[in-house]
Amino acid sequence: MTKRCGLGWMILLTAAMLAQGCAPGGGEGTKPSAGGASPTASSSPEASSPALVVREVESPAGLESREPELSAASGGRVILSWVEKVGEKRYALRFALREAAGWSEARTAAEGENWFVNWADFPSVIELSDGSLAAHWLVKSGSGTYAYDVKVSRSADGGRTWGAAVIPHTDRTETEHGFVSLLALPEGRLGVVWVDGRATKDMKEGHEEDEPLPVSMQLRYAELGADARLSNEAVLDERICECCQTSAAVTAEGPLAVYRGRSEREVRDIHSVRKSAAGWSAPRAVHADEWQIKGCPVNGPSVAADGKRAAVAWYTAQGESPRVNVAFSEDAGATFGAAVRVDDGDVVGRADVLLLADGSALVCWMSGESGKGAIKVRRVAPGSALGPIALVAEADVSRSGGFPRMARAGDTVYFAWTQFGKPPRVLTAAADVSSFK
Question: 60: closest CA among 13, 111, 99?
């Protein structure tokens, strides 16, 4: 068994820093930090707050695996997917289900030699509302470094066999298409949100790096039925950040997507769009960080939803103050409350968020400087009460370390990340969060 960064497992990971004392700016009643995100809380955790016990879960991923993704499935199950190198130039999208008896045997959703494999733009496998599975991965479409297409396939037999791959974008330009979020819609339909580069196809090469692009990436959407036919194609935002992840969830009123926008002034704050009976909304900022940056930070947001309640977690460095924030919505993403800072400093970002049974949010992020760092987690209760911070694992915070991911089954939260080495491997862990408050 590969050891994790020298840590012994079945570790009692104490909440190393309590919420108010470790958040920059101090304790209850402090002024908001730069950009308006405040670490204020309705109550402070006591020193006797239960520590989070994070236990190793033997990973179903093999050596040469990377880019994990986690998603919840029916029956208290969790799906783990990852990319695995299976030849000199060949890769496979594999997945396994976590059930009461443990991880299932790994299965292959797709495999090929012309894939686009990137630390920040990773494939996924999810369960749809009719019990079928859907998967997406990325395939090169031309000789350009970032010329690649999204491919989507469905399985009606638990992933034993897969249908023909479908490309959800119909432009057929040799440009970037990626950073996909899949949505399980009613009646077994599949929603696909992605970053689309078709508008950049006529962009002249050789422009200076510090000059704004003459055209920008777009956020686009399409749906696929069980027959794999495309429908409801839409442009959700005509100007967005080039290479930050998107995230999407289904609320009681319909799909909700979040992403990093891009204004004419190069303000790249987190935006949201939502679909209701009236159609897609106009883009609007989740919070006005006013982070102006000329290049993409490759650090997208995460959204979770349950009924009309939603939570968004994201990274910002406005005012040269890197931090991870979370904000809640009680109306299916129509509006969001104040941003609450959750980190304890030295922030890398790469946030993920879950909603727990009591309506609180669990936020995961990476901290540390180049090379050695850590994956941390914190619970934020309704009313923005901050719980203690706990360590999930030590991790490589370089690009090779990728993005940590989470999924919940009841009171158990599963974690997955890439331990980058020679060779790299996807690792997994789990924790009971019922008393972690």
Answer: 99
